[in-house]
Amino acid sequence: MNKLVAHITLQSRQCKFWGLIVALLVTAFTASAEENFSQQVSGEGRPVILIPGLMSNGTVWNSVQETLTANYEVHVLSLAGFAGTPAAKNPSLEHTMQEIGEYIKKNQLHEPVIIGHSLGGFIGFWLAVNYGERIGKVISVDGLPYLAPVFTRSSATTVAMMQGQASMLRQQYRYFNGEQLEQQAQANISIQATAKQDQQKVLAMARHSHPETVGEAIYTLLTTDLRNDLKTVTAPILLLGAVGAFTNVSQQNAAEALYQQQLEKAPNATLIMNRESRHFIMFDQPNWLARQIIHFIED
Fold first, then answer.
1. Using one digit for the tens of pLDDT, what is the confidence trace for 155-189?
2. Which residues of 127-150 are buried (b: 16+ CB within 10 A; e: fewer)?
């Protein structure tokens, strides 16, 4: 997931913390029987599922969808409660993951490629852990199997260490409104995307998200550590990291080392860092992203 290390103390870290998570983060999307997401399907061929990040909808994948539709059956998801997609009665990220897994089964999608951005990348890892026999390949676009070390800057961070702050954030988000979500996004919008028009897209999606759903998702990201579970995943994994928001090489190298540590248990994982792009690689470096995706799928 989205996407980056905050150089702040634990107390002052909170503002950047929220701002970074905000992004961890037009076509009409087809209504579906699923409660926790809607989908748009286009093209023919091997199935590919595109999952957006926190407070994003499927439109962030427009350029990728356009590239892939010529040769693949592309399923673009929009998750309930994010960026104008109606909230679900059960705003559970785990329920969303399970529903996507059942969607794969129900539609008999043979070894689909899962591509997720930020939170969507985390869901991709989670699907591979729980539905490994049905997943072909996983591509995570700046999303990690455990989010918290990005903020603590330590791979030694555990769920137990984050439990209190995760619970506090979940409670706080229940009282937010759309404007407050946008304000949280604004605090660190410069690390999400480079161009002003792309930054405005991120802010608009945040403003139209459902605060309680966002809070539940943040809680899950901070209290679910998939790093050790990756040892059971045989599907090929590609993690595309973005460190273009950092101002010097030492910061970029530190982030790359942290990303690599997240994949230590995965038997078949590759890390590729983009040192020019910010968190929304599909906005900043769409051609580079498309090349990496196609090369990995076809390899």
1. 999 999 999 999 999 999 999 999 999 999 999 99
2. bbbbbeebbbbbbbbbbbbbbbbb
Residues 6+ apart with CB under 8 A from 110: 46, 47, 136
Residue 201 has φ and ψ, to the nearest 5°, of -60, -45
Higher pLDDT, 133 or 2: 133
Under 8 Å between Cβ of 205 and 82 = yes
Residue 42's identity, in one-letter code, is S
Give the Cα separation of 114 and 132 in Å (integer): 11
The SS3 assignment for 237 reads: strand
Is 41 in a helix, a strand, or coil? strand
- State which CATH number among 3.10.450.50, 3.40.50.1820, 3.30.2350.10, 2.60.300.12 fits the domain covering 13-298: 3.40.50.1820
Q: Where are the domains of the chain?
A: 13-298
Beta strand pairing status for 72-79 and 37-42?
Answer: antiparallel
Collapsed DSSP state (helix, strand, coil) of residue 129 = helix
Cβ contacts of 130 within 8 Å, gap of 6 or more: 97, 98, 101
